[in-house]
Amino acid sequence: MINGVILKNNNELKYNGENIDELNLFETFGIEDNIEIVGFKGNIENIPKILEKVDSIKNNCCDGCIIQLMDATAIAGKKHLFHGVIHAILAFKRGTNLANDLGIEIVLRTSAQRQISKALDVLGLKEKQMDIAIVLINCPDYFIEELSEIFIRDDIVLKPNLSLLKEIFSIPEEELAIMAVDDILIDRTSALIVEL
Questions:
Q1: Domain ranges of the chain
Q2: Distances from the Cα of 61 to the Cαs of 10, 30, 70, 139, 145, in angstroms?
Q3: Which InterPro entries match (predicted)?
Q4: How far is it, in rounded angstroms, from Cα 151 to Cα 138?
């Protein structure tokens, strides 16, 4: 099952209506159709301890599972985040990845940054009460329940907050007058490919 923009109909994988099965997008990582994007609220008191808890969930199960946590306030909805996931997977497939880890590549692509430190400034966890977007790839469904023991499940955090996004990404009003915020950020993600 895939949440977000990818739909599997008649055994065809589609992204925004386009058949992407032919691209074998997920072949590199052995991903079939198991990508989840979920929202949580949580109080982060110690980032390394939280990451250790998340790693313990992952390590108790399977190889190849990716759990990437991000600051949901810097995400313009599931479409924006899923676009970042697709571009990260494509980057690895093409050998144009900027990071050695798919989770970090997702953060880079979603934040439209070329430097990991800048991407983490935008989308990384902070030690405070925060809204968290989590991408799970190749993970069993019960992982969401296990994450719910650490955080409080709340998909509302995935809805874009226009005023915060304008500030985080320095989006001018003129641009917002002609494009939706998620499309603006998707364009910025796509522009990373052109810059390489």
A1: 35-195
A2: 31, 16, 22, 9, 14
A3: CGI121/TPRKB (IPR013926), CGI121/TPRKB_sf (IPR036504)
A4: 20
Q: Three-state DSSP class for 16?
A: coil
Per-residue tokens: 186? 């998707």
In sequence order, which residues have a C-beta less than 8 Å from that of residue 93 and are 6 or more positions away?
23, 24, 25, 27, 28
Cα angle 162, 168, 171 (rounded to 5 degrees) comes to 65
Ramachandran assignment for 69, one of left (phi > 0), alpha (psi -120 to 50 degrees), beta (any other):
beta
How far is the CA of 158 from the CAs of 123, 126, 140, in angstroms? 13, 17, 21
- CA neighbours closer than 13 Å in the CB half-sphere of residue 134: 26
Task: Assign 45 a pLDDT band (cuts: 50, 70, 90).
Answer: very high
CATH number 3.20.20.30 given to 35-195: no
Least confident window among 21-30, 116-125, 144-153 = 21-30
Q: CA-CA distance, 85 to 135, in Å (whole number)?
A: 8
| Confidence (pTM) | 0.82
Q: Distance between CA atoms of 118 and 65, rounded to whole angstroms?
A: 25
